[in-house]
Amino acid sequence: MISPPQRHSHLDALAMTLMVGLCALWGLNQVAAKLANAGISPVLQAGLRSGGSTLLLMIWCRFRGVRLFDADRSLKAGLAAGAMFSAEFALIYWGLEYTPASRAVVFLYTAPFVVALGVHWLVPSERLSRVQSLGLACAFGGILLAFGDNLSLPDHRQMIGDAMLLAAAGLWGGTTVLVRSSRLAAIRPAKTLFYQLGVSAVALPVASLLLGEQGIIGQPSALVWASLAGQIVIVAFASYLTWFWLISRYPATRLSAFSFLTPLFGMMFGAVLLGERITWGLSGAMALVAAGIWLVNRK
């Protein structure tokens, strides 16, 4: 019998350090995905990433003695989490065909509010106070400051993309709530990740075909394959495993507040590595996000 993980009511220094590191990695992943897009279509790329990471995870679990196929009443919740994870990525990449990435970020990062509402009803011990809710709004204000100059009244095509990104945000937040409030909260983080990677490794290549993607484009360069390999090993395997370990031990909403850092890190890495433009409000955005995270996590 596996004993349930020790739960913490607040984030300690370890959790906060890990979350900042994860957000930096996920921001860097945005650059890696753009590089890999030159040779592999986006949804297929996400599917290949999940497939490679699933194999790594199975090898890691074999050496660690983690049993992935024991009956523990987590199958239904696990398959649901995997399906939501797959649909989230399909909607993100499909939605980006209709609306610019800088606009999509604003809608996608409504996900922490979904987490806050979900745990409010399903996990009473993690309900946010009014000040903490204000902190979430403050952090989201940072995203608006950084990316809000790309917002305008949408045309019909952008409305479709915006709706897809909002749906993806709902799935992202809903997956976190499901993991925290279901049987998945009591199993090993590696098995929770296995459900998501395994299902998406099958579903996303199928979605790629249905969306009419090109798939492998020409002869991908070594940089394309290196970018994909980095996503497989560092992002989808190591960082996601760490994320599920954190969810199993710390309040989900407090952790989710840190996710507002990810697009800001992505903006900085894009400027350094790809020569992309940085908006004038980045410094103010960082300050607002940091203030919001502090309000959410203060004791």
Automatic annotation (TrEMBL):
<feature type="transmembrane region" description="Helical">
    <location>
        <begin position="159"/>
        <end position="180"/>
    </location>
</feature>
<feature type="transmembrane region" description="Helical">
    <location>
        <begin position="255"/>
        <end position="274"/>
    </location>
</feature>
<keyword id="KW-1133">Transmembrane helix</keyword>
<protein>
    <submittedName>
        <fullName>Permease of the drug/metabolite transporter (DMT) superfamily</fullName>
    </submittedName>
</protein>
<dbReference type="Pfam" id="PF00892">
    <property type="entry name" value="EamA"/>
</dbReference>
<keyword id="KW-0472">Membrane</keyword>
<dbReference type="InterPro" id="IPR000620">
    <property type="entry name" value="EamA_dom"/>
</dbReference>
<feature type="domain" description="EamA">
    <location>
        <begin position="15"/>
        <end position="147"/>
    </location>
</feature>
<dbReference type="InterPro" id="IPR037185">
    <property type="entry name" value="EmrE-like"/>
</dbReference>
<keyword id="KW-0812">Transmembrane</keyword>
<feature type="transmembrane region" description="Helical">
    <location>
        <begin position="102"/>
        <end position="122"/>
    </location>
</feature>
<feature type="transmembrane region" description="Helical">
    <location>
        <begin position="280"/>
        <end position="297"/>
    </location>
</feature>
<feature type="transmembrane region" description="Helical">
    <location>
        <begin position="75"/>
        <end position="96"/>
    </location>
</feature>
<feature type="domain" description="EamA">
    <location>
        <begin position="160"/>
        <end position="297"/>
    </location>
</feature>
<dbReference type="GO" id="GO:0016020">
    <property type="term" value="C:membrane"/>
</dbReference>
<dbReference type="InterPro" id="IPR050638">
    <property type="entry name" value="AA-Vitamin_Transporters"/>
</dbReference>
<feature type="transmembrane region" description="Helical">
    <location>
        <begin position="134"/>
        <end position="153"/>
    </location>
</feature>
<comment type="similarity">
    <text>Belongs to the EamA transporter family.</text>
</comment>
<feature type="transmembrane region" description="Helical">
    <location>
        <begin position="223"/>
        <end position="243"/>
    </location>
</feature>
<feature type="transmembrane region" description="Helical">
    <location>
        <begin position="192"/>
        <end position="211"/>
    </location>
</feature>
